């Protein structure tokens, strides 16, 4: 659930999503759900000449399982906070296992 | 309340002593049986009672998959399937699994080498949710625009080119992943998981 919460903090930021079929799409992150399906607004395909398929599409709902990478604006990511949260998550998981 | 039960729209309205009636009505409106005016219309109706009014309440469905699909109903949509097919049509229905119904659809065929594209009329599609890679709303103002650098061609011309290209791309992905697998990478199989 950590990354779900993390992506929720990125809502309304501009991100670039790279899919497993090599298309890269840039857009404003509008929504994310538990499967990390994402919704982008005002999308633009990075290599428009190579991928005209989405030229008339204005928003996009992308299934989480077809995403390879999401490029984030580094200014919107608090790395220290994220490290902290993942450590806490790891400790919680370990405690759960031990119990 | 007893009065109410006897009333019927087909009845003739009863002759009333209006002053007495108004007095009775006034007493009923402001009498002790009337619940106090509520400042919060949700109070008593929301689980847990008091909802702080100044905190904006997110609609509970905001982060679910089907809430995103709801917005697309009756819109012209562009669906990309996991096998890289592009289908455009009017989305008419969906369910919790993300299965969708697309009517009056066309399939878009592209030939990248010669920058040609064609539309194939396909009619109605019921698409199983797991096969949908992306789905987006089409901007109707831009719908008829031809993408820069591309040319519309006949289906008979584009279809074989498109087919050959898709097969070539599939082979390339397989070859790439076979090489990556030797180095210990887990194959992605394009989007076909």
From TrEMBL, chain A:
A GO BP annotation: mRNA splicing, via spliceosome
Listed Pfam families: LSM (PF01423)
GO cellular component, one term: P-body
Coiled coil start-end: none
Gene3D superfamilies xref list: 2.30.30.100
Alphabetical keyword list: mRNA processing, mRNA splicing, Nucleus, Ribonucleoprotein, RNA-binding, Spliceosome
CDD domains named among the record's database cross-references: LSm2 (cd01725)
UniProt domain Sm: residue ranges: 2-76
GO MF annotations in UniProt: RNA binding
Domain of life (superkingdom): Eukaryota
PANTHER family xrefs: SNRNP CORE PROTEIN FAMILY MEMBER (PTHR13829), U6 SNRNA-ASSOCIATED SM-LIKE PROTEIN LSM2 (PTHR13829:SF2)
Family: Belongs to the snRNP Sm proteins family.
Protein name per the record: LSM complex subunit LSm2
Organism annotation: Mytilinidion resinicola
TrEMBL record, chain B:
Entry GO terms, CC: Lsm1-7-Pat1 complex; P-body; ribonucleoprotein complex
Main location: cytoplasm
GO biological process per UniProt: deadenylation-dependent decapping of nuclear-transcribed mRNA; mRNA processing
Compositionally biased region (Polar residues): 24-41
Chain positions covered by the region annotation Disordered: 23-51
Tree of life domain: Eukaryota
Keywords from the named record: Cytoplasm, mRNA processing, Ribonucleoprotein, RNA-binding
Keyword presence, RNA-binding: yes
Listed GO MF terms: mRNA binding
PROSITE patterns, alphabetized: SM
Subcellular location: Cytoplasm; Cytoplasm, P-body
The Sm domain, residue ranges: 64-141
Assembly, per entry: Component of the heptameric LSM1-LSM7 complex that forms a seven-membered ring structure with a donut shape.
Function: Component of the cytoplasmic LSM1-LSM7 complex which is involved in mRNA degradation.
Family to which this protein belongs: Belongs to the snRNP Sm proteins family.
Name the UniProt record assigns to this protein: U6 snRNA-associated Sm-like protein LSm1
């Amino acid at each position: 659930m950590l990354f779900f919460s993390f992506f929720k903090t990125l809502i309304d930021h501009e991100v670039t999503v790279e899919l497993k079929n090599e298309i890269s799409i840039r857009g404003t992150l509008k929504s994310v759900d538990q499967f990390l399906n994402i919704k982008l607004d005002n999308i633009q395909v990075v290599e428009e000449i190579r991928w005209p398929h989405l030229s008339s599409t204005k928003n996009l709902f992308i299934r989480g399982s077809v995403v390879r990478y999401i490029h984030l604006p580094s200014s919107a990511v608090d790395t220290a906070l994220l490290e902290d949260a993942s450590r806490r998550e790891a400790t919680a998981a370990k405690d759960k296992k031990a119990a | 309340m007893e009065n109410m039960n006897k009333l019927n729209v087909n009845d003739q309205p009863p002759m009333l002593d209006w002053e007495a009636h108004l007095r009775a009505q006034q007493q009923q409106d402001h009498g002790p049986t009337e619940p106090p005016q509520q400042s919060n219309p949700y109070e008593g109706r929301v689980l847990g009672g008091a909802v702080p009014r100044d905190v904006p309440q997110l609609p509970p469905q905001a982060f679910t998959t089907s809430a995103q699909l709801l917005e697309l109903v009756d819109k012209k949509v562009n669906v990309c399937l996991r096998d890289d097919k592009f289908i455009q049509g009017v989305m008419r229905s969906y369910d919790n699994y993300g299965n969708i119904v697309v009517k009056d659809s066309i399939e878009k065929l592209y030939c990248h080498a010669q920058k040609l594209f064609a539309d194939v009329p396909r009619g109605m599609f019921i698409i199983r949710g797991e096969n949908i890679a992306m789905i987006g709303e089409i901007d109707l103002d831009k719908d008829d625009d031809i993408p820069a650098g591309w040319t519309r061609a006949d289906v008979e011309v584009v279809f074989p080119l498109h087919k050959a290209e898709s097969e070539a791309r599939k082979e390339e992905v397989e070859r790439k992943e076979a090489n990556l697998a030797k180095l210990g990478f887990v194959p992605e199989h394009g989007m076909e998981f």
